[in-house]
Design brief:
The complex is a heterodimer. Chain A is mainly β. Chain A has strands at about 5, 10-15, 20-25, 30-40, 40-50, 55, 65-70, 75-80, 85-95, 105, 110. In chain A, the strands form two sheets. In chain A, strands 2, 4, 5, 6, 9, 10 and 11 form a seven-stranded mixed sheet that branches. The mean pLDDT of chain A is about 95. Chain B is globular and about 40 Å long. Chain B contains no helices and eleven strands. The N and C termini of chain B lie far apart (about 40 Å). In chain B, strands 2, 4, 5, 9, 10 and 11 form a six-stranded mixed sheet that branches. Chain B has a five-stranded antiparallel sheet with strand order 1-3-8-7-6, with no helix packed on it. The chains are: A mainly beta, B mainly beta.
């Protein structure tokens, strides 16, 4: 099925460990986004990539880095995980100028202990 | 930055009841979107509204784009157990090179059979 694929679905890290969350879309969308979702906080934008080759900070970028590997793939890296980064992470994509909002992946549930 | 106030934060209703939730903003949007998030999944688009005053239905769901362009509401009629989830409003403005979809914090809906 066409859409946004995120891996892994679940991950447990120890404080200080690093990891990369992967995201790929097969809809030929230009723009891709990483959000985190915490109880009562809604969806907060971490980083986005308006087009291949560009990335920009969102609302909560500290502690994260991103790479837009190509048009399909946009990864999120935690260099030194902290308990405050325990969250559910969503990747989304859209075609620039689209009237239909974003298509979301099914999320990665990350726990940092 | 722009913020959306979504209410109520949560609702616990009996099956068959009607549901109403709304979003307000201090600034205007060109488009209002309503998403639903099922447990363990990413948000999925329910309804998109493009014109001030527009009233749009999707099955038992009805949403309206406020005349001032600063608010929107979503109604669900005759709720059923599968309506359970978190509903997000989102405001979208065109143009620019950045991600410009602003989310409310969500309304968590629980339905008693």
């Amino acid at each position: 099925n066409a859409g946004v694929t995120q891996t892994p679905k679940f991950q447990v890290l120890k404080t200080g460990q690093s990891m990369t969350l992967q995201c790929a879309q097969d809809m030929n969308h230009n723009s891709m986004y990483w959000y985190r979702q915490d109880p009562g906080m809604g969806l907060r934008l971490i980083y986005y990539s308006a087009s291949e080759g560009t990335t920009d900070k969102g609302e909560v970028p500290n502690g994260y880095n991103v790479s837009r590997l190509n048009k399909r793939e946009f990864s999120l890296r935690l260099e030194s995980a902290a308990p405050s980064q325990t969250s559910v992470y969503f990747c989304a994509s859209t075609q620039a100028g689209s009237l239909y909002g974003y298509t979301f992946g099914s999320g990665t549930r990350l726990t940092v202990v | 930055g722009q913020q959306l106030n979504q209410s109520p934060q949560s609702m616990f209703i009996q099956e068959g009841e009607d549901v109403s939730m709304n979003c307000t903003s201090s600034s205007i949007f060109n488009t209002w979107l309503w998403y639903k998030q099922d447990p363990g999944e990413g948000p999925v688009l329910l309804i998109a509204l493009y014109k001030a005053g527009e009233l749009t239905s999707n099955g038992r769901l009805t949403a309206q784009f406020g005349i001032t362009r600063k608010d929107s509401f979503l109604n669900i009629s005759a709720s059923i157990p599968s309506d359970v989830g978190i509903y997000f409003c989102a405001g979208l403005n065109y143009g620019g090179s950045q991600g410009n979809l602003i989310f409310g914090k969500g309304t968590k809906l629980s339905v008693k059979p």
